[in-house]
């Protein structure tokens, strides 16, 4: 008689800023995660951002030193990656890498931040009659998180967001969400 033991999968609930093991496959049930590799100068290089319903498999990227962090409170569950899941992840990773590479070349930095917010709106936002509402869990990303993802300084992000608010391009809403008052661009699709 053969006894089969099912593999137990991890299910984690984490706060914003915590690390997930990058050697496992994760299905995101709630929240958002960020994959980065830190350069020698201790600056992060963003490799992707994933949200609810998506699967992230950092080990498939084939780089050492990857760090998977939570951007918001998350609930994730470890998955056994199928071939189809691996293929889907790699296709999405390639799309994100291309978009992030294009964004890294946008100058000035303020325009890069605005296009990053626009991309987040396309991926994770909700279209309303006033624009796109964007939230990452209970609140918007911190200025430092946005700076790390966009490859900017926190001070530049703060100044740019203030300028965007004053120009009416963005507005803070109740519940910690952000309203983008511009159409989500298709140049990043």
Describe the structure.
This protein has 189 residues and is an alpha+beta fold. It has 2 domains: 96 residues, Jelly Rolls, CATH 2.60.120.10; 83 residues, Arc Repressor Mutant, subunit A. The strands form 3 sheets. The protein has a 4-stranded antiparallel β-sheet, with no helix packed on it. Strands 2-7-4-5 form a 4-stranded antiparallel β-sheet. A hairpin with a 5-residue loop joins strand 4 and strand 5. The mean pLDDT is 90.
Question: What's the structural blueprint in terms of helices and strands?
Answer:
Elements lengths: L10 E4 L4 E2 L5 E5 L2 E6 L5 E7 L4 E2 L9 E5 L3 E5 L4 H22 L4 H16 L1 E2 L4 E3 L8 H8 L3 H13 L3 E3 L5 E3 L9
Antiparallel strand pairs: 1-8, 2-7, 3-6, 3-8, 4-5, 4-7, 9-10, 10-12, 11-12
